[in-house]
């Protein structure tokens, strides 16, 4: 999203409050965490996604299946546990089907956040994929207690409250998948003057 000639403040990222986040009544808490750091909400909608939308969302990046399968295997091995399979793609296929079930189970909130380093900042606030090992102070670390092992036992997706784009490219593709260009609002937040202007010279009359 950030073109070479654009300021960092134009970077955008895509987030979803997943059905468990809505059901846990954490909408306000989650939005507050993204908002209070200085990011600007530029698009938002409440919806129940279709299975097709979810599967397409997770496969926009051709490398996602390999990466998610490898990460899952590592999650088991790091704890001295045996992964359900040693084939990342086989694991990824199962994860994708579980994700389709999870994300279509109720309403979600899709959002676009804008600001300097939006992608990395939102990932930092969100925390690592597995709530059991994500850092305290992050959304996934503070509000949910799921693990790779428990979700595997129950043959379901890890419940981790939110989705957040993993890279600027992923964000760009996901925003285009979930929002029409006219649904994204270009406006100024007055606090941006303090966050981004080279001089803080407008404070006194
Ligand atoms: P994220 O970017 O941190 O959300 O993680 P990924 O893009 O790797 O995975 C997408 C989502 O799939 C995660 O947020 C989880 O909800 C789910 N998921 C990922 N890996 C696993 C896994 O190994 N087992 C299960 N059950 N769910 C997983
Ligand atoms: Mg991801």
In terms of topology, how is this protein built?
Layout: E1 12-17, H1 19-23, H2 27-36, E2 40-47, H3 51-58, H4 64-77, H5 88-103, E3 108-114, H6 118-126, H7 139-143, H8 148-153, E4 162-164, H9 168-178, H10 192-196
Antiparallel strand pairs: 1-3, 1-4, 2-3
Helix pairs in contact: 3-5, 4-5
Bound molecules: guanosine-5'-diphosphate and magnesium ion.
Total strands: 4
Q: Give the N-to-C terminal Cα separation.
A: 36 Å
Q: Helical segment tally? A: 10
Global Rg: 18 Å
Shape: globular
Average residue-wise pLDDT: 95
Structure description:
This protein has ten helices and four strands, in the order βααβαααβαααβαα. With 205 residues, it is α+β, with helices and mostly antiparallel strands. The protein has a domain at 8-48 and 106-196: Nucleoside diphosphate kinase-like domain (Alpha-Beta Plaits, 2-Layer Sandwich), CATH 3.30.70.141. Strands 2-3-1-4 form a four-stranded antiparallel beta sheet. It binds guanosine-5'-diphosphate and magnesium ion. Residues 68, 71-72, 95, 98-99, 129, 148, 151-152, 157-158, 160, 163, 166 line the site of guanosine-5'-diphosphate. Guanosine-5'-diphosphate (GDP) binds at residues 68, 71-72, 95, 98-99, 129, 148, 151-152, 157-158, 160, 163, 166.
